[in-house]
Structure prediction request, 427 residues.
Amino acid sequence: MSTVMRSSRVALHLVVTAASLLVVSSPALALDLRITGYLKSFSSVLDPPLLLDDPIEVDLPLLGRATHRLRLTTALRITRNLSLSYANDLGAEVQDRLLFLGEELPLPINQRTYRLTDPPRRLYPETLSDLSSFGATHNIDRLNLFWRLPRFDITVGRQPIAWGAARVVNPTDIFAPFTYTDLDTEDRVGVDAIRVSVPIDIYSSIDFGWVTGEDLDDETSGFFARVRTFAVGLDWSATAIRFRNNFLLGADVAGSLAGLGWWTEFAVVDPEAFLEGTEVDDYTRLSVGVDVAPFPNSYAFLEYHYNGPGTTRASEYLGRLTDIAYSEGTVYLLGKNYLAPGFVWQPQPLWSVTMGALTNLDDPSILVAPSAEVNVAPDVYLSVGAYVGFGSKPNPRVDFLAGDLRVAQSEFGTYPDIFFGSFRYYF
Prediction:
């Protein structure tokens, strides 16, 4: 990176930090300022799968993790039509050193790809070589100006950008999606963008914008346009996205019929569409589902997902990870055909019980996800849950902690079992 680019990034860090302090601390803005936030703690145990080697089994040790997250969100209303949003996360993590290195399954998605610049995420320690079992992190997750004009709205800066009708896997959500096993999915990770929203009527709108990555070039950035409307009793959306050198064309539609809600969302991606002299096959992703309230205080859904970049052979999983769909398209599932049921029951106003699952129909293997939550006091929530995989276990030659899937026998049989508890306090 050039000296000029380094200096620009350092200068931008200083500007962001100074603006953040002014917004939070200036008494002159106190009447226009609203500060909210939360404190979250997640404690989890990861149990890696048994490694089969007849006639013995190799049992890997348990891995522990405790993460704590403090988020402060500031909303400053400058005028009736102009406002500033800022959110800052501070995190503390106590966990096995291997988990700091990211050597785990499922393979994580880098949700901070589309950012122009960032202060160092890790506050302590400064280098990987000093990692032991404690780390402190920092994340400026929102910093944007929202301006409401007579004919359109514009948002400039770090903001969430996500869409799609599906409940489990959204084929058109590619900037900062969550995976099925993410424990904290309340706030979408912010990306750096300029977004323009043009209302057409009460039901219809057009969104378009630029999502920037490091160095402001096409290799790291994206452009999007999305049209949404309501017609013949259905919600319709169409989306076109250039991300890096890939082109995505997608759509989703949702409605209801005979007491059932239903949705369809699909995307067709042309990898390397904007690079001359390259020929990479297009791929398709599709999610189709229905939901219903089977009895009072309950909700159930069933979603099928087709993952075009995946494979029906477990022995080919590792080879898929180098494909553009995984390195740039935020795809993380390795098979082709999936079924995801879900059920939520609220036996009392302050209690809820959830049962979900994600099934690879090709292995076959299944990841079961039960959880329960209780509202123990105003703005205080406790929950417990698990992600437990069932399927053929990997061969002991697999280096599980290094993500080596060459001899995997199934997808979710290779996942660690995760048991967790959480505490959340909102203020």
